[in-house]
Amino acid sequence: MVRKLNSAAALVLAGLFALPPAMAAAGPLPAGVATRQSDEGLALALSDGKPLYRLDLDRMAKRRRGASQVAAERCAGVCDRLWRPVPAPKGLPAEGDWTATPRPSGAQLTYKGDPLYSFAGESLAEAEKLQVAPPYFSSYTAKPTSMVDGVPLATLYWHPALYQPPAPEAKTPAGVTLHWSKTAYVFADAENHELYVSKSGRACQADCAGFQPLVAPLAALPVGEWRPVEAAAGGRYWAYQGRIAHRATSADAEPPATGWRPLELR
Questions:
Q1: For the CA atoms of the chain, what is the radius of gyration?
Q2: What would the mean pLDDT of 20-48 be, rounded to a whole number?
Q3: Three-class SS of residue 140?
Q4: What is the C-alpha to C-alpha distance for residues 53 and 155, in angstroms, rounded to an integer?
Q5: E strand residue ranges, 120-241
Q6: Longest Cα–Cα distance in the chain
Q7: Do β-strands 184-188 and 98-101 pair in parallel, antiparallel, or remain unpaired?
Q8: More reliable by pLDDT, 146 or 89
Q9: Is the CB of residue 245 less than 8 Å from the CB of residue 214?
Q10: Residue 154 CA, distance from chain mean position
């Protein structure tokens, strides 16, 4: 089935991800913070590669009156032994994606309302050994639910902090939109289905697996990096930076085979 875009991301950390210039310029990261690429999205990390986390109790504290006290009761002492608030650099604005959350130990770096933490141990197995009272609070130092090469990725309550760069400005033809898709901004059609481009950049002529070139109206004029082009076999199609965009012919169409990829913003 043709993939629809969403901003959900999961949590398998891999190699470093280099943002395209348009996105890198859109919103720099605070000092000491980097991003790591995963199979399902970008995650925040310290500059030395250690993952950063958010805690679901922090979100509960924003939704419920008195939840901050519950968070303190469940996490104080226990959490502080292995989970370290990330210090906020000086000069952060009072509003925006990057802010500071006051704490007794000092301001904590916060991304989109989620205070950020680093894990002080080598493995979340260390957290499992902590003695917690009453016992039903022990879930907050539980075994990891996800590990990769010994790196703790998540527990039931601690989750890697995912990152989405600010959306850059991009001029597009009518019916073409720009969306975040896990690790990059990609173009989509009016129904929010990803657009694709072939390895050759030319229009698909046969065996297109339910995809066809994105038709440009006869009166269409260039828009930003988009140009209407005449195909050799006939037809007028939209091309982005010289590569002809393709869309699904139905909601059940599978993404194109090898040699095709989503049309990313450059």
A1: 23
A2: 72
A3: helix
A4: 10
A5: 146-148, 151-154, 158-160, 162-163, 177-181, 184-188, 196-198, 211-213, 226-230, 236-240
A6: 74
A7: unpaired
A8: 89
A9: yes
A10: 16
Contact 5, 192 (CB under 8 A): yes
Distances (CA, A) of 128 to 51, 121, 124, 132, 189: 19, 11, 7, 10, 47
| CA dist., res. 190 & res. 178, Å (int) | 10
Q: Rounded to two decimals, what is the model's pTM?
A: 0.69
Q: Are 107 and 86 in contact (CB under 8 A)?
A: no
Please name the residues in contact with 112: beta carbons below 8 A apart, sequence gap of 6 or more: 97
User: How confident is the model at residue 133, as a pLDDT?
Assistant: 46
Identify the pLDDT of residue 103.
Answer: 83
Q: How far is CA 68 from CA 60, 72, 116, 152, 159, in A?
A: 8, 6, 16, 25, 18
Residue 95's CB: how many other CB atoms inside 10 A? 7
Which residue is it, tokens 């039903």? Answer: 136
Residues in the chain: 266
Beta carbons of 116 and 125 less than 8 angstroms apart: no
What distance in Å separates the CA atoms of residue 103 and residue 95, rounded to the nearest whole number? 18
CA of 129: how far to CAs of 80, 82, 102, in Å? 14, 11, 29
What string of H, E and C letters represents the secondary structure of 75-137?
A: HCCHHHHHEEECECCCCCCCCCCEEEECCCCCCEEEECCEECEEECCCCCHHHHCCCCCCHHH
* Residues 162-186, mean pLDDT to the nearest whole number: 91
Contacts of residue 67, defined as CB under 8 A and 6 or more positions apart, other chains included, come to 57, 60, 61
pLDDT digits (tens, 9 = 90+) for 229-254: 997 767 899 999 999 999 877 767 66
Question: What torsion, rounded to 10 degrees, do the Cα atoms 232, 170, 208, 190 define?
Answer: -120
Report how far residue 76's alpha carbon sits from residue 160's, in angstroms, rounded to the nearest whole number. Answer: 20
114 neighbors 159 (Cβ within 8 angstroms): no
